[in-house]
Design goal:
Strand order of the largest sheet: 1-2-3
Order of helices and strands: EEEH
Helix content: 10-25%
Number of helices: 1
Strand content: 15-25%
Structural class: alpha+beta
Number of strands: 3
């Protein structure tokens, strides 16, 4: 997982979704990622936010891990 320094992710709720400020990928400089709402799917921005946080901190692991966290959307009929 994470080795060395400090990791920070700032999440801000904006009118049409979320902005995430942090160091993404191998970049040294902080950058901004945007998750926009979809007016046809009210859960898409929340789902995207959860996936982004999991990816940022590597909570999802890999398919070879015995345990990992997943985001699952359920439909009740």
């Amino acid at each position: 997982m994470f080795e060395g320094g400090e990791m920070n992710l700032k999440i801000t709720r904006v009118n049409n979704g979320y902005t995430l400020e942090g160091t993404f990928g191998n970049d040294e400089e902080p950058s901004v990622d945007v998750i926009e709402e979809d007016e046809l799917d009210e859960l898409v921005s929340g789902e995207g936010l959860l996936w982004s946080v999991m990816d940022y901190f590597n909570f999802g692991g890999s398919k070879h891990d015995k345990e990992r966290i997943r985001v699952i959307r359920e439909k009740h009929e």
